[in-house]
Each structure stands twice: as C-alpha cells, then as structure tokens.
Write a structure and sequence with these properties.
Blueprint lengths: L25 E5 L5 H10 L6 E4 L8 H11 L15 H15 L3 E4 L7 H14 L2 E6 L4 H13 L5 E5 L1 H8 L30 H8 L2 H25 L4 H5 L11 E2 L2 H15 L5 H16 L3 E4 L19 H10 L3 H13 L3 H4 L13 E4 L1 H5 L9 E4 L5 H12 L18 H11 L4 H4 L7 H4 L1 E4 L20
Parallel strand pairs: 1-4, 1-5, 2-3, 3-4
Antiparallel strand pairs: 6-10, 7-10, 8-9
Amino acid sequence: MTAPTLPPAPAPRAATPPAAPAARPVRLLLDGDDDHAVHRAAYQWADPARGRITVDPTPHTTSPAYLALDVLRAMGRETFSRPETERMSTDPAWRAVTCWTLACGLDEVIVLRAHRLTTERLRRLAAWRADTGIRLTLLAHTPEQTDFQRLLEHLTAAGLVDVATVRGTAAVLEAIGPAATGRRSGPPPHDHAYPLPTLPRSSVASFRADCWRRQNATDFAHTDGQYRAGYAAARTWLARTLPPPPALACGTEPAGGPADPTPFTLQETEALRLFLARLTVSSPSVQHTVARVRGAQAGFLSHSVLLNVPDDLISCAGPGLTTVPITPRVVHTITVRLPNPLRAAAMTALLFTGTAKSLLSMTQIASVDEDGTTMAIDRDSRINIGEPPGPRHMYAVPSRARPLLRAAVEFRRRTPRTADAHGLFANCFGTTPRFEALIADAGLPVPGLDHPHPEDDWHKAARCWHLHTPQPPTLDALPRLPGVHR
C-alpha cells in the first residue's frame, strides 16, 4: 500500500516580533483635588481577567525596573515574595511586561501617581504602549499650573505627544468608568476527577471485558467512559488524517493474499505521537490514561491499523503518566509565583510533557508552533549529527498553557542576538542551584523529576502498522509481529 502523503512542514519563521496594533491616544486624567474617590474608582475598575489593570507605582523610587515589577504585580504576578527569588533587571523586566501583555490580551492600563514619573519611566511606558497597542491612561495630581506644565514637558520628552487631557473630579470619574463586576479573590478551586480503581494489566483484546468482570457498576461506567473517549478519538483522528487503504476501499483481497503489515512512515509516526499526547495530556491519573490508550488501540483496529504501546505502560514516563493536568489553579500558581516568562514556561513544560529535563532542555524557539499548540523536540539531529533524521518527540500543549509558551517565545525573540535555532529554556535547567530555585519558586510537585526515565517516553516508543486486510480484524485475530503487545 502506498503511504499517504502528509503536507510539507511549514517554512522556518522569522525571529522578528509581529507588528503591534496602532496605539490609541494617551488619556491624562488630572485630579487636582486629590480626591480619594478617584483612586478608589481606578482600583475598582481594574479586572486583569478582562484585560484591564491599574498600576500603583512603588513610592520613593525612580527605578524603571521597579515600575516594570509594579506592572507585573498589577497583572497578578506577585513577584519577589521570597527573599531568594530571582530578580530581573530593567530590560528583561520590561520585556516580560510586553510579552505577558501580548500573550494574555491586556488591553487597558491606568497608571496612578503619574505626576511623579520620571522621563525615563515615561519612556518605558511609551515603548510598552508602542509595542502592544494598549490604551494608556495616566492619573496625575497637579494642583498648580506649573506642575501641569512640567508634566507635559516630561511627556513630550518621552515621546507621548498624542495626549487627551481630562480635568475635574466628575469628568475624571466618568472617564475611568464603572467598577468591574464578577471578580473573585484567591486562587481557583481544586479540580476533582472520579478516581478509577486499579485496572487490569490486560492487552487490548481483553481489557474491556476484564474491567467489566472485576469492577462494580459505577467504576466500570467511569472506566468505560474513558475507554470510549479514546476509541472515538482514535477513529476521528484516523478518518481525518489517514485515507482508507486500497484493500478496504474496493472490498476485495489482493491477489496472493494480504500483504505484510506496513509500518508508519516518519511523518505518520510524528503525527501519531502528537495524537497520543493530545489524547492523554489532560488525563488526571495513570488509570485514566491506560483506559484511554486501550480504547484508542481498539479504535485503530477498527480502521485496520495496529497500535503497539509498551507492555508495562504504567511504569513508563510521558504524557498522562508523569504529567500534571494544567488546571486553572495550576496556571494561577505558576503565573503568580514566576513572573519571568521563561521560567513560567519551563515549569509548565515540565508539568505537561512529563519528560526528563535533559530532553526538555533541547527545546528550540522554533520547536513551538505559531499558535503555541504543539512542541516538537528533535533530539536525534542534536545527538546523531550527519545521520538521517528520525521522528521528533511531539508534545501537545494544553490550551491553558499556550499563553505561557507564547510569552516565552516572544520573550526570546525580543532578546538581542537571538535566532529560532537557539534554546527556548536556556539557563532554566542547566545548573542544580538554578533549577532547584525554579522548583522552589513554583512550589508545585513535578512527577517527572522523581521518575527514573530509563527509556524514551511511552508515546515515542509506540508503533503503528497498516494491516492490509479486506475487513478490519477482530481482536482475537491480530497478526503476530515482533515486540507487539497484544
């Protein structure tokens, strides 16, 4: 059978950051009376989840770096809560501000005490606005005309010349707008999944029947739900990705009997690894993963495709086995404790890949696709130089983790002298003290670090064959292939 042709790989992407939308005019709100109601309204207006923040600059300092940290804190990234937490200098801190703004959809910003901002701080705000297109509002207290003139001079020197001024308490309150509604404080609640019992270590041929015999009705219903989800996902993926083989299309057996099973091509193998990662990356436990994989194997067989996975699946590492579901609470913990986009993305990648940090450290900037949905690690080309390329390690990026990966990619690309072939997580996993500090800052368990990783991740060890049969084989009539677990 002729192997199906997959679309060619996309061309390499340029490292130039995308153009920002046109910035809207700066609003300068003059609170001449220093009314407390104005400051209260600005705080109540903020809603980071809806792309609106209010920045209160740290008093008694003129450092541009501190202003960037104030912006990050307003975004909900409560940095430097521990004395030994990593510090960011001025340029990296402002790059982090820009990247989080683009990745998380920040749209409007109010900066309090704008009359105390230096020209250099205003220049940083102007650059931030130019890079992201945010709507910038400056709230200033200028009781005298001379104070107002001095502020205008600073704004002009910083390049903020398109300024719309609003005076008077009533007009300022109207310009700020109503308070945000529906906000909640604290982290999201813990997610809950129904715990599955220990599953039988059966092959796909008898797995579902063994579960039915050994489990009560409730447990089997939940196990079978995971099994059916894997079955349906496999059939859907095969229907969209691989056309039916000729023997199935015509409904007749080839002359001379069925041909030998054909292994997947390199491109098909990469697509298979990505499918298996997507199927299991959100799995809340190893038992859920096993049920989904067994269902997927049955779904593959219904399309005359044989999927082989490691015999002792639960002892392997990889998606669904040594991963942590990226829930709202996990994302909240990471973003609050790790304001550096690189560190946040590195921790997130450890959680959703479940792989060894030695492999994850090979991730290149170009390894993450444009939408941040997949991550491909080409280990073979880095180790076996000059040899033909093999299938890459493919990982699916959960939807909640994509903004963090996009922010990290943007941060790297905005770093001087950076190319797409450079390491995305460079200096994140290298030295033991730095890596231990990353784990301590995040405060999250990483199952992949405790796993010995004796071999490749399970989805990389998976293999597939096309079975050239006129009808899909039954589970009891599988061909015997070397190393295939039935």
